[in-house]
Write a structure and sequence with these properties.
Pfam families: Abhydrolase_1. The protein is of the alpha/beta class and about 280 residues long. It contains nine helices and eight strands. The chain has one domain: Rossmann fold (3-Layer(aba) Sandwich). Strand 3, helix 1 and strand 4 form a beta-alpha-beta unit.
Length: about 280
């Protein structure tokens, strides 16, 4: 497939790596030993969103986090490369045949799509604040609203609008989460809002796959998240055969940053059931 790891980026603790994939590279890091766990960040974020979880997970698992294509230190979007294809290429490059996947928002969508399209590569999925490609929203989807603002008013205006969207309202009373959110959005390259760059392929509709999913699923959501994401969490919990759901009270979209200890503990308990 043409992937090659950088010299010295083996399984050593806190090893940073670039993984070369067709039409680009993915930047990331890994730490720890044991069953592989891959952490997948959300839209407008980067792998640093997993700072609260990464060290604790690495004590018992081979833990990998990476920047999606078009985010963080990874390469530009490519018109013929989607995030699930990149994830499989990453697993191949790291010598991982099967992994636990944990994602938030866009990252959860990618984990869900990987479990649907490549079931032999996925042990479990943890879906935090998930969307559901192909599911009809009753209100505008927040990322699409942000893209429309960028088209009308420019990228900096869209970033300001995005930070103040109700999806992140719960962080306003949580200084640590708000600081991390603000820093990530400031770093966000916003390639997805640049009409001069190619658009990456969208994830396929997944609604029809849910009853056939084999991977056990943990679905986590915030009681203060916007209605669309709360509704989707309920759909996933009902339709995925082996699914459990937990809702975090007084918490919004950024569960792992708003309630880091509670989120990490819940994830670790779930993973321990499948070692």
């Amino acid at each position: 497939m043409g992937e090659a790891r950088a010299a010295g980026a083996g399984a050593a603790a806190d090893a940073r790596f670039p993984v070369r994939v067709p039409d680009g590279l993915l930047a990331g890091e890994e730490a720890g030993h044991g069953d592989p766990v891959v952490l997948i960040h959300g839209f407008s974020f980067d792998r640093s969103m997993w700072d609260p979880q990464f060290p604790d997970l690495a004590r018992g698992y081979r833990t990998i986090r990476y920047d999606l294509r078009g985010f963080g230190e990874s390469g530009l979007p490519a018109a013929n490369r989607d995030h699930v294809t990149d994830l499989v290429a990453l697993l191949d490059a790291l010598g991982i045949s099967r992994a636990h996947l944990a994602g938030l928002s866009l990252g959860a969508n990618i984990a869900l799509a990987a479990a649907a399209l490549h079931p032999s590569r996925v042990r479990t999925i943890t879906l935090a604040s998930p969307g559901l490609p192909g599911y009809p929203w009753r209100t505008p989807r927040p990322p699409e609203e942000a893209a429309a603002v960028a088209g009308r008013e420019g990228i900096e205006a869209a970033k300001h609008w995005w930070l103040n969207h109700e999806i992140f309202r719960a962080t306003q009373g949580n200084p640590a989460a708000r600081e991390q959110l603000t820093a990530m959005v400031a770093r966000f390259p916003a390639h997805q809002w640049d009409s001069a760059l190619p658009a990456a392929p969208q994830l396929p509709p997944l609604t029809g796959f849910l009853p056939r999913l084999a991977a056990p699923a943990l679905i986590l959501g915030g009681a203060l998240d916007v209605a669309g994401y709360r509704e989707i969490a309920g759909v996933l919990a009902r339709e995925i055969p082996d699914a459990e759901r937990q809702e975090f009270a007084d918490c919004g979209h950024l569960l792992n940053l708003e309630r880091p200890a509670e989120f990490t503990g819940r994830l670790l308990r779930f993973l321990a059931c499948y070692v």
